[in-house]
Each structure stands twice: as structure tokens, then as C-alpha cells.
């Protein structure tokens, strides 16, 4: 053991020679003073703004404690974030009071940096106008491809109820200058469901065939006859007054009209008027009547009377070989246009007798329903 070689201690090594120097590789992006939520989680700008206000004031903040000033500050932070993400180089130059590069997208706008709001605004030539607001004189510059800008366009489009692209573009430019804004608005409206509904053109229905009653050109007048009643009218007889109704027969082909008088609305009065009509105009092949209030009312009493009247009339007329048909409730005569109906959309609607009598083209009204508790209305209706 005495002859063993002595162990040589290793030489001391400087730790600086073994360790390599670390180098930082990264991208420095200017950040806003406060962070806001991710915009992709929200569908409207109002929801995104509300979430940003809540985020800046803490989750425990009550919505009733948030003021208008808080909402303005949150919106300002959102716009600052958008410009930091879209125009980082321009912000660096403008903060240093240098012009933006000639290759910048903002070079043609003569952009200016607003030290108060920390936003890039359009320079413009209205800086001496004292009547306009700051946003109208120097709009805030936004990139049309940013999600926040798309939500702002959507918000303007919904507030003014989905008009054309020019109207939305004019409203947006009162505060924001969106790069290629008109194209961005048109792109939004092409995918907006409500805008597509407003711009959609209705499908033109196929022209229906005329009913046979309108095409009996080789038949005599009143071969196909429409019938309707009108009234009542108060008629003075001696010292008393009585009700009288009018009945009108109309040829469905030639539109000739025959008018008669009814003493009451019942089967006998109608058959007597029909007999007088046949003596004067000849026997018709068919009679068509609408189910208006004169023949069929909304109340139970009139419905029962109509159901009783219809079989009796058909039985009486069947013996005379006259077909009797009730049409769906509609106006046969007074809804007909009194002149030429133009096919130009710019022309006014044609005038009908109902337009002169009732102030509207269609005389039909919604059926009146009286609740059980309203006995006064029921008594008035029975009295009428």
C-alpha cells in the first residue's frame, strides 16, 4: 500500500466555462394596461362589452353598480386592444411623433395619434369644425377583418333594422373608419339571416285558372249569378218605421247587376226575390253566394239559422234545376277593382267599392268574441 501512486486531486474548473449563456428569443408585443376577455366567445358586441365591464370590475361586482363611465372605459380598452393587434407598427411610429411608413395601409388616411384616448384616428380636414363631435371629425381606425369590428358592424346593422349596405356604412362612419368598410358590411349582410329576408323577393305564384262561372261567354246573361244582401235600411211607412234589405244579383260573366228589395231575411223572402229575378232575367244555371254576415254570422244563433237555411234553399232550387253554392267568405262585388290594375310596382293599388265605402280594400273584419262576463256587449249585439 505504501507503493501505491498518490491520487491527484482534479483541477478546479470554473463553472462559467461549462455553462452556456442563455439567450431570450421571443416577440415583444405592446400590451394594453388591462386585459379583456376573448372576443370569440361572444356573439354580439353588447354581450362582449358587458363581459368586458364585468371582467374589469371583478366577478363579484353587481351589474347595478356599473355606471355609464365604466362602460365607456371598457369600450375604450377594447378599441385599444384592437388597434394594438392590427396596427402595431403604426402605433410605434405615431407615438414617437413620426409619420407612418408609405407602405402602411393607413398612409392615405393621414392618421393621427390621440394622446387622450390612446387611439389612432383619421386626420381629415374637419379639425376646425366646432359643431361636430370628436368621433365625427376624427373617426377611429379599425381593421375590417378583426372579430370586434365584425361585431360592431353587426350591432349597427341590428340597431337600424337591417337596411342596405350604404345606410349601415354611413352610420358606422360617423364614429369608426373601417378599412374597406363597404365591402365588410356587404359581406356581413350576405350572411345575415334578417338581411336576406328583407332583400328576398317573394315567389310569384302561378296564375290560377279562372272558375267556370267566369268563362260562360256563349251563355246568356245571368247564366251564372252571384247573389248577396246589403242593409238593413229604415223605411218609414205611415207613422212607423220598418227594416228593409237589398238583394243584388250579379252576372259572373258579363257583370250585369239586378237589384231587388227584401222585407226580411228568411227563406220565403229570398225565394220570392229569386222568382221575381227569374221573371225579369231568366232562370240561371247556378247561384253563388258568399257566406258574409248577411247569411252567416259569428254567433250561435246565426250559425244555426244558416245551417237550417242552406238545406231548404238547396231543396227548393233543386226542383227548378238551379245549382246553389256557398263560396268561402269574401266580397264578390265590392272587392272588384273599378279600373285597370297596373302591373307596375310603383303604381297605386286599384280603387274598389270597399275603398269608397269603408276606407279599405277588404271589408272583412275579425270576428267579434264576447267573454262570458261582458253581458252588455252581448245585449247590444242582440239589439243590433
Automatic annotation (TrEMBL):
- Tell me which InterPro entries the record gives: Integrase_H2C2, RNaseH-like_sf, RNaseH_sf
Top-level taxon in the UniProt lineage: Eukaryota
Chain ranges passing through the membrane? none
Question: Gene3D superfamilies from the xrefs?
Answer: Ribonuclease H-like superfamily/Ribonuclease H (3.30.420.10)
All copies of domain Integrase zinc-binding, residue ranges = 149-199
Q: GO MF annotations for this entry?
A: nucleic acid binding
PANTHER family per the record?
A: GAG-LIKE PROTEIN, PHD-TYPE DOMAIN-CONTAINING PROTEIN
Could you tell me what this protein is called?
Integrase zinc-binding domain-containing protein
